[in-house]
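Why do we bother with holo predictions? Because pocket geometry can differ from the apo form. Keep that in mind while you read this record for adenosine-5'-diphosphate-glucose.
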Amino acid sequence: MGKSVLSRIVVVSNRVAEPKAGKSAGGLTVGVMGALKQQGGIWFGWGGTTCTGEAKDAELKRRGKITFATIELNETDFDAYYNGFSNGSLWPLAHYLLGFFSYDRSQYEAWRRVNTTFARKLLPLLEPDDLIWVHDYHLFPLAEELRRAGVTNPIGFFLHVPFPGIAVLQALPPWRQILQSLCMYDVIGFQTEQDREDFLECLRFAGLGGDRRGNDSGRIEAIQRRLTVDVFPIGIDVDECAQQAQESARLASVQRLERALMGRPLIMGVDRLDYSKGLPDRFRAFDQLLSDYPSSRGQLVYMQIAPPTRAGVRAYQDIREELEQLTGNINGRFAEPEWVPIRYLNRGFARPTLMGFLRLARIGFVTPLRDGMNLVAKEYVAAQDPADPGVLVLSQLAGAARELTSAVMVNPYDGRGVAEGLQTAASMAREERVERHTDMLAVLRKNDINVWRQRFVEALENSRQATGAGARESAYGDR
Ligand code: ADQ
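The structure, written out:
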């Protein structure tokens, strides 16, 4: 690379999650913390509190080489930005769920204002050599705002959710502005090849460019800018998951669950309580299994862990009620004095406990209607005992299905098909389970969380060389 000193990384995400001692974190936190620990830098974002009036400057907390920089957001704008445009418009659109989609121009305007605030509060913290790495759909226009303020550093964007096809994207009135904003990044990363293709197709449809440059398929040109558009499937820390899962066998909560199962096979789902995760369809598919395969009654136990999220959005309250009703209905119809088919837990668990539960499960039940990646699918595989692993039943509409091709693949909308998938998994011989698990574990190792961030940071660093971005004589070169 010709540089002796690694550039600082500036990570920007909607929410800053400073890892707590003794607790391990999810994929995003592990990935970005890895980059920050190695290269030093800042993690900038919303700190979790709102204010009236103007937001104050970022509050800085230094922890070794890492600075956590958090801001407050105006309470009215926050609701419209987060619950409104981000999670009421962009989230359903990205998951192809137009029935949940709504649009309100004033929410879009608040979303833009919050992005302006992010840029304004970040600006004084930037240095000319920094690499800026922005995460997720809440912050689509951040590069545009930063460029407007004179920032010439390399700015990358990683999208954790799917990118919708043009026919769906067009439902969003400001779809063209959003595409234009995205072209102000130097690197745009997607979870799957499909997402990248959809994005390029959208650019071409909008007449913004999107054609490949030269032999390097990742390099494109759009609105007279050169950018890298590539696929960076997010991974997990495989060894940490495996180790936690193994050690967690000793935890009292895991042992209690094992005793309560009394040797019955466990089917397990772990999701945020989100309509994109396909939980009602999943519950109905389990109902179908009990109806179609009487031998499963009194035998299989399905435990679903689903802590509520985004309580400020109506659709999230509705799904909670729907699942409570479905659980009552299924348990009421099938339960026996010594067996209850569904255990539905509306709460979160510490990660080690979760890994211990996943290891106990004979079937990992992951059937989102659409998902950028789905880390639970990967965690389930990593948590298994390689000598006697369980089986992953996976939605073909999750990004993870592109990599975990040895899972039992199902279409989450096809209840009968999902029930068949569960039955196949429940009766699978050990030899086949081991074979499938070995294949999937190899994929997880090849593309783990470190590979994900190293590839992204490298692409960002290369973009500096390719475009001359981040020249020292930038807008604030002599600060
Ligand atoms: P999410 O939609 O949140 O992420 P997912 O990928 O499954 O979905 O990640 C959830 C994380 O939270 C996992 O690490 C999981 O273990 C943890 N988790 C979930 N429920 C929990 C519980 N009850 N208790 C404790 N931990 C829990 C978004 C995209 C995904 C993409 C990720 C990362 O929607 O498609 O895979 O970002 O890019």
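Residues 2-235+449-467 form a domain with the Rossmann fold fold (CATH 3.40.50.2000).
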